[in-house]
């Protein structure tokens, strides 16, 4: 289970790249850039959305101005610029994103609603809560400085002083605090934050002040949200509700202050010292509650398995002798394992002869024997495994990429004895499957366009039959069918609250509905007699296991737990339950005997907030609906301008490029105008680029003019220099087609170039035209910690230079292996051949670099290596070998060795040139949301081992704006 509201920074960046790199998504998701999009405008917002998300967006748009009014009053600031909101769903997960740029604020809202029992599942209206949280970020962080120096810095780095100076616990804690005040729900008012705070306080393991921003501990990503918000509440209680606004004003004052200085001026003491007092008070309150509950009598069961970090809700086999669950580890991909419930893992112990030694006292139950495990492939983790009645098959869902790389949940069947996996559905957006009808069918949830519905899936054919309509007003979660196949129980969110609804499976007639209007119910599981059902309810202030008797309509509380229970599952004997329990380093499994005469349940009435949720929920601020103007087609979108920079500094030439980028917020259109200068010798000129993604095929056009004169390197010969100093102008047009999946990606491009090249040394004018067909194909095969990947690329050109017709080909292959969150090793090999009536300037030239002014098709014969002088090798055939060791997440460094060789009919095969280099390489795709073009940064140094540059050590720094 993921206890964080958000994904980590890597996932957020992945979201940006998927949505706004212009790759689009499959038509089924309604997010493809060439599919219909529209824009709704209100007084303070522009909302851009795929037409398939119209209902979700209109629901947001009717309330967004009211959200604006409420937020600006609480934060005491109103943004001066209209906020652009993009509605999308690239990961099929609940999330949001705020980018508080001073003049171009952005919000991205992902439409999938959270499930019942989620850390962010306590809400009246998910869309309101999500928008309010993200808009608090904008309003809070965009407040401008009144200091002249800070205002100047805002032109260089377009974020305000609060965003620059505030720690993350302030940023996320404040938005979480106000999500509670604005909606009357959210994490400050729910039981999840209280569980987290209570358990860690009792264990004496509340985060240190340094850990408030996150860290290496389990669930540290949740610390800024949960502990940041409750610490801010505590500070407001000491200094008054206006104290935080005073802090924002001091951070943006004419007098420049650090965060600590601004904080101390409001709260009288430094933040770390006050946090220490907060920890002491919170721990004391938690210990008092612990003593009270122990006196009243706890019923928590017995520890069955201690698990470090997270684990999925478990599933039991029909005979109760096996348990399936997904283990989530920090350093390894998630893995699905099947444990024995009767056998333990016998560890072989070495003989140890010391009769006076004292043996270990067992700190936890022994590890269970692993009966079978499913290897995670291509990092597509399994979720929510459930046994079929045969005890051999397990159904689960994975998030699989569509043809444009966006993720959708689909169902899979695993035969655990043979290891065979069968995919049941394809791009169906189906998850949370629960089998019935002897394993032939399953009930499940479909989540699409921000809406959910209950469906029935034929596990043999994959056919999907809807049991309810796709709905924005009703959220369905966690269905389960009774053992006699008569009833289906499902958690639903409707009219602002969660309830457990039990329906007749055939007629779908409502039989029972459980819920008091404020509690969160989750994780239902039927009794073997089909006459009662167990589930989780937090109506006592603590998530406990309850039982509902369908014959009497009576609710009774089964457990009395200090921390909180999650995901109960009944043993087939019907006498006890397994459930997950939170502890400070993960989620452990407990076993609880079912009492014969359970307690009807009691409400904790003592005021232990925030160790417990508030006794009475506030109504929250009402967001009234307002009328909307008609939406307009997005077309090419509103065009925005930004500056772009490229450069290259090597031993034989340098250049600086600077210009303007114009584009829309989702990436349908991009225009770049660049000019280039050199400080000694290098490329000068200009270029205009136009990229259009309005159609299924990407269209790119570039006009360019470039003059390049290289420094007089001692190894550039008199015969090769006339080929290297040139003036080139022309126009290029390309059409590209892309496809992606979880295991592969492909790109095919057709290009046409019309140009004229002038060799400056001899004033020879050479018309040079060509057509090119190129392709790239990448595969990856991941299994647990190891991923094998292959990349193949090739191009074929038919061209003419000064009336001479020639053909050229370039091909390459790369194979490698990467280790999960560690390092990669890969080897590549490339070949090039030129034949026909070519000019000497068409020969392959090894060395040098290509600036942002020229497209690759204008210099296809240049085999770039910035540590080498351009033209150090020339020939009609080329060979390149490279071995790379990439430290990956350990360090952003690449160690590589490279060998070049050329051959020509005149001079034969050249001696190889070998070099060893160390560099940083960062390739950033176009991110339209950030007004950022496709850019490649390369900083490094290399030693050359062969003539004519033997023993030279050359450095280089390149930033190329890619086509």
TrEMBL record:
The keyword Electron transport does not apply. Residues 1-28 form the signal peptide. InterPro entries: 6-blade_b-propeller_TolB-like. Keywords: Signal. Residues 340-371 are annotated as: Disordered. This is TolB family protein. It comes from candidate division CSSED10-310 bacterium.
């Amino acid at each position: 289970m993921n206890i964080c509201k958000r994904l980590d920074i890597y996932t957020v960046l992945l979201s940006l790249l998927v949505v706004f790199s212009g790759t689009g998504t499959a038509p089924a998701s309604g997010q493809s850039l060439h599919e219909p999009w529209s824009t709704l405008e209100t007084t303070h917002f522009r909302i851009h959305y795929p037409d398939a998300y119209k209902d979700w967006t209109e629901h947001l748009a009717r309330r967004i101005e009211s959200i604006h009014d409420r937020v600006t009053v609480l934060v005491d600031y109103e943004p001066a610029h209209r906020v652009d909101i993009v509605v999308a769903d690239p990961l099929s997960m609940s999330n949001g994103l705020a980018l508080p740029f001073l003049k171009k604020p952005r919000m991205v809202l992902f439409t999938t609603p959270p499930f019942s029992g989620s850390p962010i599942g306590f809400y009246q209206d998910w869309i309101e809560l999500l928008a309010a949280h993200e808009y608090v970020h904008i309003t809070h962080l965009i407040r401008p400085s009144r200091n002249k120096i800070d205002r100047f810095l805002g032109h260089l780095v377009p974020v305000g002083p609060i965003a620059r100076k505030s720690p993350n616990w302030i940023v996320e804690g404040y938005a979480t605090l106000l999500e509670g005040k604005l909606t009357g729900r959210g994490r400050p008012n729910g039981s999840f934050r209280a569980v987290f705070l209570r358990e860690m306080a009792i264990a004496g393991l509340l985060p240190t002040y340094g850990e408030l921003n996150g860290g290496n501990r389990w669930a540290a990503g949740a610390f800024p949200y949960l502990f940041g918000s409750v610490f801010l509440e505590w500070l407001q209680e000491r200094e008054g509700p206006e104290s935080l606004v005073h802090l924002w004003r001091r951070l943006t004052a004419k007098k420049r202050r650090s965060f600590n200085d601004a904080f101390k001026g409001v709260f009288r003491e430094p933040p770390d010292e006050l946090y220490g007092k907060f920890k002491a008070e919170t721990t004391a309150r938690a210990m008092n509650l612990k003593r009270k509950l122990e006196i009243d009598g706890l019923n928590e069961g017995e520890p069955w398995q201690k698990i470090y970090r997270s684990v999925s809700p478990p599933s039991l086999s029909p005979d109760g002798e096996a348990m399936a669950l997904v283990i989530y580890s920090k350093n390894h991909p998630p893995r699905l394992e099947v444990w024995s419930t009767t056998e333990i893992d016998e560890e072989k112990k070495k003989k140890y002869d010391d009769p006076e030694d004292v043996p270990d006292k067992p700190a936890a139950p022994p590890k269970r024997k692993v009966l079978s495990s499913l290897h995670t492939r291509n990092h597509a983790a399994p979720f929510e495994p459930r046994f079929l009645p045969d005890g051999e098959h397990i159904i689960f869902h994975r998030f699989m990429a569509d043809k444009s790389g966006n993720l959708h949940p689909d169902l899979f069947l695993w035969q655990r004895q043979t290891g065979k996996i069968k995919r049941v559905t394809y791009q169906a957006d189906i998850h949370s499957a629960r089998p019935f009808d002897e394993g032939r069918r399953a009930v499940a949830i479909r989540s699409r366009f921000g809406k959910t519905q209950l469906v029935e899936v034929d596990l043999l054919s994959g056919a999907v039959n809807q049991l309810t309509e796709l709905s924005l007003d009703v959220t369905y979660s966690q269905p389960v069918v009774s053992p006699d196949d008569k009833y289906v129980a499902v958690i639903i969110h409707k009219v602002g609250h969660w309830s457990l609804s039990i329906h007749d499976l055939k007629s779908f007639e409502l039989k029972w509905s459980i819920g008091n209007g404020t509690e969160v119910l989750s994780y239902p599981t039927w009794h073997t007699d089909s006459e009662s059902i167990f589930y989780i309810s937090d109506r006592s202030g603590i998530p406990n296991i309850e039982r509902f008797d369908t014959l009497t309509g009576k609710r009774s509380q089964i457990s009395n737990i200090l921390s909180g229970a999650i995901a109960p599952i009944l043993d087939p004997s019907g006498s006890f339950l397994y459930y997950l329990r939170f502890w400070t380093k993960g989620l452990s499994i407990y076993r609880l005997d079912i009492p014969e005469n359970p307690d009807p349940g009691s409400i904790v009435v003592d005021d232990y907030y925030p160790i417990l949720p508030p006794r009475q929920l506030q109504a929250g601020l009402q967001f009234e609906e307002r009328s909307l103007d008609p939406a307009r087609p997005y077309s090419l979108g509103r065009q925005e301008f930004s500056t772009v920079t490229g450069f290259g500094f090597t031993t034989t030439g340098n250049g600086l490029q600077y210009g303007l980028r114009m584009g829309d917020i989702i990436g349908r259109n991009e225009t770049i105008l660049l000019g280039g200068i050199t400080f000694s010798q290098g490329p000068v000129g200009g270029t205009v680029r136009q990229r259009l993604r309005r159609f299924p095929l990407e269209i790119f056009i570039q006009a360019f003019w470039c003059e390049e004169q290289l420094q007089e390197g001692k190894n550039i010969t008199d015969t090769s220099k006339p080929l290297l100093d040139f003036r080139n102008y022309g126009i290029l047009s390309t059409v590209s087609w892309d496809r992606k999946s979880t295991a592969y990606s492909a790109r095919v491009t057709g290009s046409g170039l019309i140009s004229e090249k002038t060799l400056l040394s001899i004033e020879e004018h050479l018309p040079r035209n060509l057509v090119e067909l190129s392709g790239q194909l990448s595969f990856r095969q991941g299994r647990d910690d190891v991923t094998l990947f292959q990349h193949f690329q090739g191009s074929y050109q038919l061209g003419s230079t000064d009336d001479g017709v020639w053909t050229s080909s370039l091909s390459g292959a790369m194979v490698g292996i990467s280790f999960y969150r560690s390092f990669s090793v890969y080897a590549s090999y490339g070949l090039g051949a030129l034949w026909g009536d070519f000019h000497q300037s068409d020969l392959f030239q090894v060395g040098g670099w290509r600036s942002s002014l020229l497209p690759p098709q204008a210099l296809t014969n240049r085999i770039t290596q910035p540590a080498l002088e351009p033209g150090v090798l020339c020939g009609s055939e080329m060979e390149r070998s490279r071995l790379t060791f990439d430290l990956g997440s350990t360090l952003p460094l690449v160690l590589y060795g490279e060998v070049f060789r050329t051959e020509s009919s005149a001079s034969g095969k050249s001696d190889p040139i070998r070099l060893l280099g160390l560099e940083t390489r960062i390739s950033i795709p176009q991110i339209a949301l950030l007004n950022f073009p496709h850019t490649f940064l390369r900083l490094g140094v290399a030693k050359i081992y062969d003539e004519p540059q033997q023993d030279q050590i050359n450095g280089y720094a390149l930033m190329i704006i890619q086509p």
